[in-house]
Design brief:
Elements: E1 2-8, E2 14-20, H1 24-43, H2 49-56, H3 60-80, H4 85-88, H5 90-109, H6 114-142, H7 150-176, H8 183-198, H9 227-257, H10 264-284, H11 290-314, H12 317-343, H13 351-380, H14 382-411
Antiparallel strand pairs: 1-2
Helix pairs in contact: 1-6, 1-7, 1-8, 3-6, 3-13, 5-6, 5-8, 6-7, 6-13, 7-10, 7-12, 9-10, 9-11, 9-12, 9-13, 9-14, 10-12, 11-12, 11-14, 13-14
């Protein structure tokens, strides 16, 4: 497949040259790989946080502040740049975001104190926020005809799978690789440079139109047709991403401080198992209805979060691992069901804005409780704070589940 691009000839006339583009199926899977890589980079620092904390001597409150500044930057980007690709096209926004993401990895490479960590996570958050809306919309644009569920599936599986891959890979390299706090970021620098260059062969799916005056004004935009489904799905987004925030912000410190685990590869594997289980469960249940996935996922999330709370209370590492896997198994289908029920209700030119709104809610739930937990850790300690956090997630997920069951009985 090719597309004509105008180029000036020596005689001053405009000639036509052809740039080969990927077919839509190939482009779809390349965008899926990009989502996975992007989210892998976002979780890669999680197993490194205890190392940075010991090396730079900062508190748990500072650790969660480093985590939070990433999310705040991501939200700012989602609320502004997130909708830009609906106007100027998917390719240019994605290319710039990936270049900025590579720059964030370079800052991590030179990190020599907390200031560098704040800077790296801020730049990474801005790049991730700019990319995540366009990537989600791109997958829905490029999904095969008749495969209306595939785009939302890959959106969910690639995101959660990427979180798992990043944590596992970072843990392995930290434990066994040379230059343990650098190698993971060297790999991601190369990956993002390659992916940014590869946007040149992606087909454009949006017709360029003038940028509206308010296009970059921070606001959440949910199309009228999707608002009912969006608000019904919000409790599910909140309960799932709350637990994700716990795992990726203080999970490494929890495994080391409460359960005495000092092997970084094991820490990375346990953190990665949450996201890996989410991706696997989403894939296995992909043909079920959104209502079934959200209900079944919320039930598993209640069981898993309850098991995590009990594990912390009894200092049982095996129970913590089981709870993490069960909670992840609930996270995946619950979020996929919520995402699918909302994302297909937008027109083509509204998709990036709607997906940005979905992730704004998700990342607020992901970050705010984690920041509060970081403050409480300094006051009451790591184990009591984690116990309270897990109990809160259990309560929110249980309330969501009861509401879903009541709605299904009423509608049935």
């Amino acid at each position: 497949m090719t597309t004509p691009v105008a180029a000036a000839s020596p005689a001053g006339h405009r000639a036509r040259r052809f740039v080969p583009l990927l077919s839509r199926p190939a482009a779809f899977w390349m965008v899926g790989v990009t989502v996975t890589t992007l989210l892998a980079a976002s979780s890669a620092p999680s197993p490194l946080y205890p190392v940075y904390q010991a090396e730079f001597g900062f508190t748990s409150a500072t650790l969660t502040a480093v985590f939070a500044v990433y999310v705040l930057a991501l939200l700012l980007s989602l609320l502004t740049v997130g909708r830009l690709s609906d106007f100027v096209g998917r390719r240019p926004v994605l290319a710039v975001a990936l270049v900025v993401q590579a720059a964030a990895m370079v800052i991590f490479l030179g990190a020599d104190g907390t200031g560098a960590l704040f800077a790296a996570r801020t730049v990474q958050g801005l790049a991730t926020g700019a990319a995540i809306g366009v990537l989600g919309a791109y997958l829905l644009d490029l999904q095969p005809p008749g495969g209306s569920r595939l785009g939302s599936l890959i959106n969910s599986v690639a995101a959660t799978g990427g979180l798992g891959v990043g944590a596992v890979l970072a843990g392995l390299l930290l434990q066994y690789g040379p230059q343990p706090t650098r190698l993971i970021f060297e790999i991601f620098v190369l990956a993002f440079v390659v992916l940014a260059a590869a946007t040149a062969v992606l087909p454009e799916t949006v017709r360029r139109r003038p940028v509206a005056r308010a296009a970059l004004r921070p606001r959440v935009s949910v199309p009228v047709a999707a608002r009912g489904a969006f608000w019904r799905s919000t409790p599910t987004m909140v309960s799932t991403w709350m637990l994700g925030g716990l795992m990726l912000s203080v999970g490494g410190s929890l495994l080391a401080g409460v359960f005495g685990q000092q092997n970084h590869a094991v820490i990375g594997a346990v953190l990665g198992s949450f996201a890996g289980a989410a991706a696997l469960a989403s894939t296995l249940l992909r043909h079920r209805s959104p209502e079934f996935m959200t209900t079944a996922g919320s039930g598993l999330l209640v069981v898993g979060a309850g098991a995590v709370a009990l594990a912390v209370a009894t200092a049982s590492a095996p129970l913590f691992v089981v709870g993490t896997v069960v909670a992840g198994t609930g996270f995946g289908p619950a979020f996929l069901g919520a995402f699918r029920s909302v994302s297909q209700l937008a027109a083509d030119h509204e998709r990036a804005a709607l997906i940005s709104a979905i992730f704004v809610v998700s990342y607020l739930a992901f970050s705010i409780p984690a920041v509060v937990a970081g403050i409480l850790i300094a006051v009451v300690g790591l184990a009591p704070t984690t116990l309270g956090y897990a109990a809160l997630v259990t309560a929110v997920a249980a309330g969501t589940l009861l509401d879903q069951l009541a709605t299904r009985r009423r509608d049935g």
